[in-house]
Amino acid sequence: MTNGRRFVILSHDRSEASVLRRLVREAGVQVCGDLFDSDPSIRAEAAATVGLKPYCSGDDGAAYLSEFGTDDKEPAGFGLLYEHAARGPASTAWDFVRSRQDIPIVHLTSDDLLVTWLRAEIERRCGDTMNTRPTDTPSFEVDCERLAEFFDRVVAKRYWVRLVFQSHPFLEISYRQLVRDRSTMYRVLKHIGAGAGSTDVAPDWLVEIRAEQIMAQRVIANFDEVCAYFRHSPHDVYFRDRPADGQVAARAGFCPRPFESLGIDAQGKLRVCCEDWLTTPIGDIRSGGLAEQWNSQTAVAIRDSILDGSYRFCDSRQCPDLVKGTLPAFEALPKGFQRWVAEGRTVMSNLPATLSLGYDPTCNLKCPTCRSDFIVLKGEAFQRALAVHRSVVSELLPAARQAIVTGHGDAIASRIYREFLRNLDASKFPNLRIIVLSNGLNFDARMWETFSAAHSAIMGASISVDAATPETYKLNRGGSFEKLVGNLRFLGELRRSGKIDFLEISFVVQANNFAEMVDFIGLAREVGCSSILFMKLIRWPGTFSETEFANRAVQESDHPLHQEFLEFLQQPIFESSDVDLSNLSHLRTPGP
Amino acid sequence: MYGEVFQDELDARREGLGFPNEVFETGSDGASYLSNNIYEECAGDDELFAIGFKLFYMQAREPGARTAWRYLMHHRNLRIVHLTRDNLLEAFVSFVEARASGRWLSEVDKLLRGAPMHVDTDECLAFLDQIYSYRGWANQAFCQHQVFELSYERHLIADFGSAMTQVQKFLGVPPLRLPVLLRKQGTAPIETRVINFDEVRRALRHTIHAIK
Fold first, then answer.
1. Are A36 and A80 within 8 A, CB to CB?
2. Which residues of A touch B132 (CB under 8 A)?
3. I need a labelling partner for B65 at 20 to 30 A (CA). Which of A166, A366, A575, B168 fits?
4. A174-188 residue pLDDT tens
């Protein structure tokens, strides 16, 4: 028995799987509908399309499927709804599909479950399958609890499908992609081994469906009540800021971070991006294993928001890539990530490639942008952070390609990170590259030598400075500027001699230092930095009062020095390739 | 610490609040109630270190009351203790048992031993899906708050004393040694409490709630 040419279309009820099947069939591929429908006549009709005897209630589902498509040289597939074969002997059909990890899975989902539900409800009421228009539909009352049950059921099952089929050849597409994006059908046909391009993948009847818009406000008689019911609920998203034409404003480009990065912060929250840019954690260190939480419900939802282009978890005012519009296009993505995007994968079978170690906030400084007092982990808090570190090293580090030490605190001041760098044997982690983030005050030649076993793994350093003069450094940082510059010169030498690949210095722009930005660039170039990063001041919890923040936040349009700051930023030096204005870029008018 | 101030039943709300506090009136504004009766009522009382109440995902969902959620989400200085259960099936069975007996908690030395019960698999799955859905939402909705994730099984049952010490520390209240006063009903193995356990197991088999 071979099953290399079989495929399965998985979907929830009302997902318009029939549209996908029709498109596949019109491309000359054998595919049938709901072999396990509760209605025997539908089962019989589905089976007849592929010359199979219908499934009889009480028969073993796996045994029935083992007969499917065995004689065919061409691909053959069938549709399976989440709800089908759920009970009794039929349920072994799921065992069959789960156990055959060479069977390609096409997972058809819906971006907007409200529209999905409504479309089917209109169909049910009007008895028309394809051409029902909301304008012709009398409005009707919606039972909120029934609708909520539908949402809950689909959301839970969708997550389950993504988890259990992560080792199969897996392609997830949405109904919206199917009707709007011509390339979707090419991807489907390629995925199921049917080849592509042999047929018109956007026939007229599909265009007609695409033109149809579901106007929820018009069709649902009690729309306001339904909206209020779902406010502050898991399904709020289907009712919030509904675009009139059903279109979702999508961003161009793809952010790879949530697919490959995992950070653990000082509160034990697990994050797939910098907290300033994406505030929602995907889990908590106390809630379970790191590897397990890497694919948590929230992690999957965040990845979904990247693939659907909504970026709804992201702060577009803070994220440098969203501010600058520099998210890479599909073609510019690394091959592995291209594959994830193309397959619509949101459950990752790989562990994170990039780790951001942030569980020890210890630092030798108390910069006002970061904290109001010195933080040095001791006693129980130190032991807790150490336990997290050990879990990271044992569970995640072997699979990681990059480790950022540290996103919060100082890599050298922290005993945990310092010991990590001292004891790391780079030869045991040949693929690992480490980036050291530090204020640089203790990052001198002697310290560097203590990391000798890790030298080949350390690819670079990023040093936070925030000033170009001793006076401003004292205000914004509080250490010895002279000592810092000496260490920067040493690190610059490491870069020039090729011992590290890059050296970045960073600068949080405020009212008291923006006038030093040009001098800062000069300092960076003089000591041998490869890049200079300027960032917006952000009000972190436990730092500035509202008034103090307002006094410092020169990027805000109501700041008295804002206009002067804007004019300052127009200097050509800020266009240099080694200068990155990151989330301040929008304040500079591009040169001619 | 108040009980379920947004319980459906007026008597239960009254019980959750205790005399002489003003009970939440059905249809009135949930946010105002929290602001005026739960939190502000005790402001300035030096003997109080923290004030809190219990809220289930599906409570305060009626018109009026539902603004309580907005209040909680907007007040990011509130600390959230998010109590979850790893075994949602146990939670459902306890829920049905309590619903049948009308008793939601039993004293530790008076453990009730009810007759084994039949579980409606459709109701069970809908309940589990709902909790799953709301738990994910709560994690996202309160991500800007300070949240303490408290697992019923891994924290409360495994080591009640240590769990309560951590909760008190999280809330910033002076730690007290708290005795175990209450025990959930039905602590016998679930297999013996559910007549159709095999049927339930099969119904959950190909779902996110599969019994391991």
1. yes
2. 152, 155-156, 297
3. B168
4. 888 888 777 888 889
